[in-house]
Design brief:
The chain is of the alpha+beta class and 279 residues long. It contains eight helices and 14 strands. The strands form three sheets. The protein has a seven-stranded mixed sheet with strand order 3-4-5-6-7-8-9, sandwiched between helices. Strands 11-10-12-14-13 form a five-stranded mixed sheet. A hairpin with a 2-residue loop joins strand 8 (149-152) and strand 9. It is globular and about 50 Å long. It starts with 16 loop residues before the first helix and ends with a helix.
């Protein structure tokens, strides 16, 4: 039930030409999006409710429009799935689909906290092939190319080798921490809350934290880029039951997440989370 991650940790000197071109296109587009995000950050940005407990800002919309213009403008035959656009279903007829969250961690962004990211992945036949997660305020740019490795600002990512829940540094969302009080279920672990899900997952790939747990539902745009970044770093990721993540399905939603630097901790977290979820 658990798929072994790719066996590469660093960036290869050469990449397939089409992926190298897509990576270059994405790098340019996400840098422009980051500059736009910095213009809006900690300003009087208009925001509104788009659903119960969900906010959106004018920055989300502006960044989505810019990324769409820069990516689909150069790849007009590609599909598009974004948090801030209506899904018309046409992506199901395209081999290549860009999956975008213009601001992952909108609440943090709106509060002026630098715990948000811009997350973009290119899927080909449902598999993430090129990915970027950018924190435009801290200038952390996490990237991955399928078969080419994963890196932060050009340096290879190296996940944590911590193997047990005891003493593990685990990331969670502040809303789940408030609702579930994770330390009650895993008192032997150390918990930290950070806003953006994509950012949290990238930090696991970078080894700054041992793992992540969640029983909340999430969507492709939250995690598509991080799926590849974790995979190429050698880290592990699955849904709340430990099943592999399947992207670009008709309903692009996932029930829970477990991530860890290595298989022993991943297996232990899945087992504990399944027990918690059934209680």
């Amino acid at each position: 039930m658990i798929a072994k991650p790719a066996d590469s940790c660093g960036q290869k000197d050469t990449l397939p030409s089409h992926l190298a071109a897509d990576r270059a296109l994405l790098s340019t587009a996400i840098a422009k999006a980051g500059a736009l995000a910095r213009q809006y950050f900690q300003s009087d940005t208009r925001q509104w409710q788009k659903g119960p407990g969900q906010i959106v800002t004018e920055a989300d919309i502006a960044i989505d429009r810019q990324l769409h213009a820069d990516l689909i403008g150069q790849r007009p035959e590609d599909g598009w799935l974004s948090e801030e656009r209506q899904d018309d279903g046409s992506r199901g007829r395209r081999r290549r689909v860009w999956v975008v969250d213009p601001i992952d961690g909108t609440r943090s962004f709106a509060a002026g906290v630098a715990e948000f990211t811009i997350s973009v992945a290119l899927l080909i036949d449902g598999e993430p092939m090129v990915a970027s997660v950018l924190n435009p305020i801290t200038s952390e740019h996490f990237e991955a190319v399928a078969g080419g490795g994963a890196w932060l600002n050009g340096e290879p990512l190296k996940p944590s080798a911590h193997a047990t829940i005891d003493g593990a540094a685990i990331l969670a969302s502040w809303t789940e921490m408030k609702k579930r009080c994770w330390p009650k279920f895993m008192p032997e672990a150390d918990f930290t809350t950070i806003g953006s899900l994509a950012y949290k997952l990238a930090l696991v790939a970078d080894g700054r934290y041992s793992g992540l747990i969640s029983l909340r539902s999430c969507h492709d745009w939250d995690i598509a880029a991080a799926v590849l970044i974790l995979r190429e770093s050698g880290a592990w990721l699955g849904d709340g039951s430990g099943h592999p993540i399947q992207l670009n399905q008709s309903i692009p939603r996932h029930l829970g997440l477990v991530a860890a630097g290595g298989k022993p901790l991943y297996t232990a977290l899945v087992s504990r989370l399944v027990t918690i979820g059934s209680s």
